[in-house]
């Protein structure tokens, strides 16, 4: 994965885990999925030369032929340096900015809250877990089946965590174990229970479990508008900024 920063490398590994096909072709790291979700189709890393315009056009044609929306991630190691401007000229729109962040896993970031119980997701609780993702992340109901399939699909590298308050599942998160680092994937809390430190408890539990598994470092790609400031306050180190562009 020459040229990729650590955060994007985790996204590349994650793509395989969730069933996307990965293709490396002349400086482009492309993912394709049978699922018509932009987050599972697109380019995660690009190192292009003088033929950049032609290559961008080829990618657009590829996904237009498949009739699926797709995303293009632009990090500081991508080339050319004006890649984001070129994508805008090709009809993309910038939809998000992520902060690649890292932390040692042996840190104690928050004090345990006895009113919040965070534990690996138990069999039978998958539908409630997906309910939290749909509500907390404002995900369309049309994605329920795909999310449920991902949660119930067995993979030894991936563990889902549920946060409980008064017997109600109110928070959801996932941890993925990769060879070089642990990856903190997609955490959310129901709007009715935010502001109580539950998101922080979800981070702490996953870091602790990584440490217990012998994984020294954790990586997260946090949205700069929401979760990145929380991770800043918890002492995570920012290692990259990833601009996310989308094409319909």
Overview of the structural elements:
- The protein has 248 residues and is of the alpha+beta class.
- It has seven helices and eleven strands.
- An eleven-stranded mixed β-sheet has the order 1-2-3-4-11-5-10-9-8-7-6, sandwiched between helices.
- Strand 3, helix 2 and strand 4 form a beta-alpha-beta unit.
- Helix 4 crosses helix 5.
- The relative contact order is 0.20.
Task: Give a brief rundown of this model.
By secondary structure, the protein is an alpha+beta fold.
Sequence of strands across the biggest β-sheet: 1-2-3-4-11-5-10-9-8-7-6
Large-scale geometry:
globular
Work out the strand percent.
Answer: 25-35%
In the CATH hierarchy, the third-tier topology of the largest domain is known as Aminopeptidase
Rg value: 18 Å
Number of helices: 7
Based on the model shown, name its key terms.
32% strand, alpha+beta, 7 helices, 248 residues, 31% helix, eleven-stranded mixed beta sheet
Describe the secondary structure blueprint for this structure.
Elements: H1 6-17, E1 21-25, E2 28-32, E3 42-46, H2 52-66, E4 70-74, H3 83-89, E5 93-104, E6 117-120, H4 126-136, H5 144-152, E7 158-165, E8 168-177, E9 182-189, H6 198-212, E10 217-223, H7 227-233, E11 237-247
Parallel strand pairs: 3-4, 9-10
Antiparallel strand pairs: 1-2, 2-3, 4-11, 5-10, 5-11, 6-7, 7-8, 8-9
Helix pairs in contact: 4-5
């Amino acid at each position: 994965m020459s040229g990729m920063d650590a955060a994007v490398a985790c996204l590349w590994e994650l793509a395989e885990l969730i069933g996307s096909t990965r293709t490396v072709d002349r400086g482009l790291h492309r993912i394709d999925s049978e699922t018509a979700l932009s987050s599972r189709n697109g380019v995660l890393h690009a190192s292009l030369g003088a033929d950049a315009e032609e290559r961008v056009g080829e990618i657009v044609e590829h996904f237009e032929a498949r009739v699926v929306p797709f995303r293009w991630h632009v990090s500081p190691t991508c080339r050319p340096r004006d890649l984001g401007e070129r994508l805008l000229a090709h009809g993309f729109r910038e939809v998000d900015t992520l902060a690649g962040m890292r932390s040692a896993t042996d840190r104690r970031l928050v004090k345990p809250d006895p009113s919040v119980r965070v534990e690996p997701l138990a069999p039978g609780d998958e539908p409630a877990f997906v309910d939290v993702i749909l509500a907390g992340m404002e995900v369309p109901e049309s994605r329920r089946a795909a999310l449920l399939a991902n949660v119930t699909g067995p993979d030894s590298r991936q563990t889902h965590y549920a946060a409980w308050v008064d017997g109600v599942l109110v928070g959801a998160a996932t941890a993925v174990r990769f060879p070089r680092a642990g990856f903190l994937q997609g955490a959310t809390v129901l709007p009715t229970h935010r502001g109580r430190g539950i998101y922080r408890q979800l981070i702490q539990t996953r870091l602790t479990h990584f440490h217990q598994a012998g994984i020294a470092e954790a990586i997260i790609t946090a949205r700069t508008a929401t979760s990145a400031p929380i991770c800043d306050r918890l002492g995570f180190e920012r290692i990259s900024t990833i601009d996310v562009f989308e094409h319909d």
